Amino acid sequence: MPTRTASRRLVTAAIAVGASAAILAPTAHAADASEVVAKKPAKLTVASYQAYLKKLKTPEAKKTLKGFSALTGGQKATFVKDLQNRKIYEALVAQVEGRIGRPLTLIDPYNSEVRVVTKAATSVGKDKRRTTTVRFTVTEEIFKIPVTSETISIAYPTAGNGPKRATATAKVSNVNAAIAISHNRVSVKGYGAQTYWSAEPQVSSFGKAVYKKEHVLGSKVTYRASLTNNED
Hints:
The chain is of the alpha+beta class. Helix content is 16%, strand content 43%.
């Protein structure tokens, strides 16, 4: 029976809109050449978020735009407010453990409209090495509309006499206009893998950046995985 522990589960929503640039005109003196000063928008609005989704044109953005457009005016305002709430994203954490071959899905509400959906999926290949894959994803949803998903996966052999090398990947699906999310190199040690995520604010209302660590550890019969804050 899979179990899960988390010091605290909160969800995060935060959404990004591109920074505007203020260009200073050059004066007559060469020493006073023009400067380009990047300035973040003060906050995300319903209109700017809709424009962001339309411009993005990814399958995830199209799905979010459809769901967002179906909300009431009040729900849209709440949605956008949650997206740029740093505390919500900072509290997006999860810790799970389970057995290979048994999928796991956990749904944890943060408030009436925000929830965290945690999923762990495993598979065992039919190759002679019986390559086992563990995939761990934590998704934040607002009004059941996915906003961002952070995933780490590891694949490793569990049979045969060849090298016991594992491979791992990480990816993000992000329609958060308030933050731009990226990860560094995925490091692998034994049957464990981890990466560090960086959520850089794209609107001033979000505040400072948030950093997280995502980790997964597999074996022949069990796995453990977590997403935690990594204090700067």
